[in-house]
Amino acid sequence: MSIRAVVLLGAPGAGKGTMAEAVCAAGPWMHLSTGDMLRDAVRAGTEVGRAAARAMERGALVPDDVILGLVNDRLAAGPADAQYLFDGFPRTLEQARMLDAAFGRDGARLERVLLLEVPREVSEMRLSGRRVCGACGATYHLINLPPRAPGVCDRCGGRLEQRPDDSPETVGRRWDVFHRQTAGLIAYYEQRGVLARIDASGARDRTVAAVLDRLP
Ligand code: AMP
């Protein structure tokens, strides 16, 4: 047995993290989010975290070699037959090629790429209203998924915060970065015949059902 992976591809606010959490809650898929790994590294003050913090605050991408180092370490530490949902990785053609090379060496398989499609207005509305628990990481939305008490996490009572890169000007930059640096992956994976497009602009449960339907 070897590692199998599915990539969730999409602009900021497309719902990659939300879909990955919903799908992985029941197993056997394991959620691998490079954004979460980087935020953990920033919080822990590691060398990677210090190197990544400025790029993340600006809504820019973290260098490819840093990302590949993180991902390789995570894959090496997990089970040899794990099934991963990659969320936010790869984000550049270089990362996609490096992933192909690593998978080719190890006999791992990238089985499918699910492209979550949303219009820019939906992405901006989702990100501007997103709030995250500083203690446990649970995610809310001021309108679509409000907490029971304003500013307080239902799950652990922690304080809800806005991600620094969800501010309006940084959201605009992240959208541009997606189109400049990540959207090229759509053609790359389409040519390989592994891409499936999903309309991710509607209700959460409908998109979860569509994602489950297209998993290998
Ligand atoms: P995310 O949580 O996926 O929205 O990622 C938050 C931020 O982390 C991004 O805006 C980038 O600064 C950085 N990041 C996450 N994944 C990657 C990646 N694969 N390549 C480069 N930067 C990344």
Explain the overall architecture.
The protein is α/β, with parallel strands linked by helices and 216 residues long. The chain is built from 9 helices and 8 strands. Strands 2-3-1-4-8 form a 5-stranded parallel beta sheet, sandwiched between helices. β5 and β6 form a beta hairpin. It is globular and about 50 Å long. The two termini are 16 Å apart. The chain binds adenosine monophosphate (AMP).
List the helices and strands and how they pair.
Layout: E1 4-10, H1 16-24, E2 29-33, H2 34-44, H3 47-58, H4 64-77, E3 83-87, H5 93-106, E4 109-117, H6 120-129, E5 130-133, E6 139-141, E7 160-161, H7 168-182, H8 184-191, E8 195-199, H9 204-214
Parallel strand pairs: 1-3, 1-4, 2-3, 4-8
Antiparallel strand pairs: 5-6, 5-7
Helix pairs in contact: 1-9, 2-3, 4-5, 6-7
Bound molecules: adenosine monophosphate.
Adenosine monophosphate binds next to helix 2 and helix 3.
Residue share in helix: 40-55%
Order of helices and strands: EHEHHHEHEHEEEHHEH
Shape: globular
- Order of strands in the sheet with the most strands? 2-3-1-4-8
* Spatial gap, N to C terminus: 16 Å
Relevant terms:
216 residues, alpha/beta, 5-stranded parallel sheet, 3-stranded antiparallel sheet
Summary of the model, kept short:
The chain is α/β, with parallel strands linked by helices and 216 residues long. 48% of the residues lie in helices and 19% in strands. α1 packs across α9 and α6 packs across α7 (168-182).
